[in-house]
């Protein structure tokens, strides 16, 4: 059984973790707000610049060239924005995942300690029940490890897809638009 001091220490540790995760979440939100503000300012500046350039267009060829020149930087900015959003979300997610893994390891250690304590103090003839408990704990640890591995694989796949999308989008935007006659 846990003593009062152990329970208080556990509560304090849980509160520290909660406040730490809350701080990390707010930090992620703050980064997203900063990114969105910077993107909005850049979009306004680009729109103003584009509007001034459109007012000075003298013929259709110049208009077409202006539009073509506007599309590539626009797609590159969209890809860069997506990368920044992904980086912020990924970073925040990794911090939460790390905290979860730490707490899961602590909980597993605590449960194993409890089972060991119970098995030492168990009455004679309860060996099969203790063995079942240890087997269940082992199975849960294996399940947790499998979930963590799957999450890491999904994250790596998402990163690869984002990189491929960025490369494809940038390459497509770099190609000159074909003219139809």
Attribute tags:
elongated; mainly alpha; disordered C terminus
Structure description:
By secondary structure, the protein is mainly α. 90% of the residues lie in helices and 0% in strands. The longest helix has 62 residues, at 60-121. Residues 177-181 have low confidence and may be disordered.
Percentage of residues in DSSP E strands: under 5%
**Helix percentage range:** over 70%
On the 0-100 scale, what is the average pLDDT? 82
Identify the overall geometry.
elongated
Residue windows where pLDDT falls under 50 for at least 5 positions: 177-181
Give the total of beta strands: 0
What's the tally of helices?
3
Secondary-structure content class: mainly alpha
The end-to-end span amounts to 84 Å
Order of helices and strands: HHH
Give a quick account of the main beta sheet: strands, pairing sense, barrel closure.
none
Radius of gyration based on Cα positions: 28 Å
């Amino acid at each position: 059984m846990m003593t009062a001091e152990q329970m208080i220490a556990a509560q304090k540790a849980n509160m520290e973790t909660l406040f730490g995760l809350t701080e990390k979440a707010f930090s992620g939100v703050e980064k997203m707000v900063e990114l969105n503000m910077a993107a909005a300012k850049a979009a306004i500046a680009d729109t103003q610049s584009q509007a001034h350039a459109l007012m000075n267009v003298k013929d259709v060829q110049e208009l077409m060239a202006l539009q073509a020149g506007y599309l590539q930087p626009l797609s590159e900015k969209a890809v860069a924005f997506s990368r920044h959003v992904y980086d912020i979300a990924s970073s925040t997610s990794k911090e939460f995942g790390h905290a979860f893994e730490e707490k899961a390891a602590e909980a597993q250690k605590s449960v194993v300690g409890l089972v060991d304590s119970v098995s030492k103090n168990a009455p004679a003839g309860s060996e099969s029940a203790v063995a079942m408990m240890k087997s269940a704990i082992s199975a849960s640890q294996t399940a947790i490890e499998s979930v963590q591995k799957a999450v890491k694989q999904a994250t790596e796949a998402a990163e690869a897809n984002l990189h491929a999308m960025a490369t494809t989008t940038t390459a497509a935007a770099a190609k000159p638009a074909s003219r139809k006659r």
